[in-house]
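thought: fold this chain, then report.
action: predict
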Amino acid sequence: MSESESKLPGGFDWRSFTPDDSPMGLPDVMANPVHQDLSTAKLAPGDPAFDFDLPVYDFSDGTRVETGRSFQLQSVSANRPVALVFGSYT
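observation:
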């Protein structure tokens, strides 16, 4: 068992969701320095976030409708604190 495999929870079968033709399994990805760097936070609490600008859509009728407006993080965060939450609530 590799070092990265030993860090997985007991009974965790990474092979069950890795395609047979995949060049890398989960332990390989976890051990890869490039992937480790991508999963390491580069900002500390209180640091300014990177700015982004995204279109605003209206989903009120269940479909995506362009509003012609955009959301720019920097313009909103200049006036008040903003919390960015990345994840799923399903």
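thought: worth noting. Residues 74 and 87 are 21 Å apart (CA to CA).
final: tokens above.
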